Amino acid sequence: MKETQQHLLNTFLSLVKIDSESYNEGKIQAFVAGELKKLGCRVQVDNAGKKFKTTAKGNVIGFLPGTIKSAPFVLVAHLDTVTPGNGVKPLVQKTEITSDGKTILGADDKAGVATALELVRYLQTRKLPHPPVEIVFTLCEENGMGGSKNLDISLIKGREGLVLDHEEINDLLVQGPAVNTIEVTIKGLAAHAGVCPEKGISAVEVAAYAIAQMKLGRIDKETVANIGLIQGGKATNIVTEEVYLKGEARSLAEAKLAKQTAHMKACFEAAAKKFTKKINGKICCPKITFNVIKRYSAVNVSKTHPVVKAVLKAAKEQGVIIRANASGGGCDANVLSGKGFTLPNLGLGVRNCHTVHEKLLLKEFFAAFEIVLQTVLNYKK
């Protein structure tokens, strides 16, 4: 095994042995900050950790000065893992690394963290001409991107680079959806369901009518929507007074997301109007509370963007075919896109994320490092 590959592997193995489930990233935050300092980076830790419950102070930002004049190249990876992620025992095999089957491996996203750390070490030891490099290690990506949402971007000078947080090396994610979480409360009117149901307004019926009129599932090639949670009711002999629903809409196009969200709201409003009726001489109308929470923005990086072209060129030199693709999920790239960053997301050779069957394919992992390295070395702006 080449020296660089062995260093990369050793760094990865050290990282996965550090417990760092979401909200418990204190140990790994301290470790990577220390490693970046040893490698000659100026290191800052922001105060993101104060914005939500975590053992870490904040996101770690490392700055490696460049030897050529250029804007900095930004590399982003997250420090946290899903559960069960404590006590990981990595098993190194000929072509892959797995856990012992009792936990996840943590390659999501410690493969990305290891890649960024090894890149800095490589640039420092080889004395190669390179642009400034900024490393951003975020907290709580797995639980809603809390780190990137609260990242102090004033500490970061660059605005272009890569997120290192995807599975297959053959994918470079250049598009990802904007997502709205939708919460709806319907308040009807309770009544005895056996004695005088006509004196009630069933929130269940209102909800059912609204959903029946609603476009859900695959709306078009860029847009999806779903109602995933319905709660309400107290007893079978009570006309249900209140129902709570929670869903979401996603789209690669912000305008389409706005249109779908407005459509869903209109369906609830139409249902409220339909079930308005006169009870004891008084007009009674179901009350609808429709709340929209913007979870994150869309990622839309042009396939002709210099970073994308540089990745594809570097991949070709490694004999790897990479496709610039879209994703239906979200990651730090989405949040940071909304803050003005341009960050395609590169696959690192991970499989079966978020399961105890997770593994890291060494051939892809090593090739991904070379692709990142060449992309950085060729970057100049």
Which features characterize this protein?
2 domains, about 375 residues, Alpha-Beta Plaits
Give an overview in words.
The protein is of the alpha+beta class and 381 residues long. It has two domains: 254 residues, Aminopeptidase, CATH 3.40.630.10; 119 residues, Alpha-Beta Plaits (2-Layer Sandwich). The chain contains nine helices and 20 strands. The strands form four sheets. Strands 1, 2, 3, 6, 7, 8, 16, 17 and 18 form a nine-stranded mixed β-sheet that branches. A hairpin with a 7-residue loop joins strand 19 and strand 20. It is elongated and about 85 Å long. The mean pLDDT is 97.
- In CATH, the topology of the largest domain is named Aminopeptidase
The level 1 CATH classification of the largest domain is Alpha Beta
The fraction of residues assigned to DSSP E strands is 25-35%
The run of helices and strands is: HHEEEEEHEHEEEHEEEHEEEEHEHEEEH
